[in-house]
Amino acid sequence: MEKLAYAAVGATPFFVGLADTGGKAAERFRAVAERYERWKDEKVISQIINAPLNGERPFLKLAKSPNLPKPLVELRKALASRDEVVQDAAVVAALVLYKTLVKNAEVYREWAELYKWARRLVNEQVFTVTAEEVERLHEAHRRPEEVAEEVRRELNSVLALYASHSRDLYEKLRPHLEVDVKRAGELAETRHSELSKHSDASIGTKAYAALLSAARGGIFGHIATLLMVEGALADVVLLAPWSAYEKADRVARGRGVAVDPSRSPKGAVDWEDRVASVPLRYLLSKAVSEDLVFRRFKGGFEVFRAYDGVEARVDVLKIEETVARSKAGEEVLRRFVEEAKETAPDLSGLDR
């Protein structure tokens, strides 16, 4: 009943990816922001992507460009022995990914700050979250997925540009750069054990899925974030997802962490991250028009609605071994159901 009511009123699902990925994921987001702000060089990116308009290949333009930032130097090395079409497609996809990260570094920094804020809150026995803070949290959680959409739109724009210039170039690069939205969504949410099913995903699909999965807390997003922090954009777009996982695993082990940042290298879920994720998931699962007071007890949190100095208990959040569950009060469920009824369309007069 609870989950149906959430769905009926159009709320975010109770189990929200980024809220589960923990403090280490937030720190990776911060590292992405810091590195790509430092590696910023959008002028070079545009020159390389637009190279075909001047009769040049993107890879050759990259190869002779001086003073490149680290990700583009690594990209040049990784592509040296590849087929020409793959070289050009990988350069375009990696540069689109690079440009998007540079442009949106602050998005990842903001989520890192908000997770840090949540960790501070749950150290208190009693804390209040205002409606304005919840609104900011929702916005920060939504923006990484919007960033992923920028990658898809930019790849489509590049293909359209190439099509207007040379149909032959367009037909060569389209199979590599065109995004399969359905496949990207599956890859964004796939489990570790199923990565090998996506070995034939196109270069463009992997570039889009990397940021989409990062926004949803998926394993491919964890892989991509680790590699992006290293400047290894070539590995994100070129390697099969399982091979990318193996490389990311080596990077993670070298740092004494796991690819999935919510777990320790031995596989255990971090307890403090699990505790912090409980109020985050709850707040992301609903629109809040009033301040909420959280009171911590041994097994979780009690949630109270605060209005004009009066508190009314509306929920109990339980911390379990692997997940956190909401035990919504009857009053809350009744309110959700009434909201759902108000938004239900009039279907009278329609056949079955």
Overview of the structural elements:
The protein has 17 helices and 5 strands. The chain is of the alpha+beta class and 352 residues long. It has a 5-stranded antiparallel beta sheet. Helix 13 crosses helix 15. The chain starts with a helix and ends in a 9-residue tail after the last helix.
Quick overview of this protein structure:
With 352 residues, this protein is an alpha+beta fold. It is built from 17 helices and five strands. The model is unreliable at 1-15 and 322-326 (pLDDT under 50).
List keywords for this structure.
single chain; 352 residues; alpha+beta; 5-stranded antiparallel beta sheet; 17 helices; 62% helix; 10% strand; globular; disordered N terminus
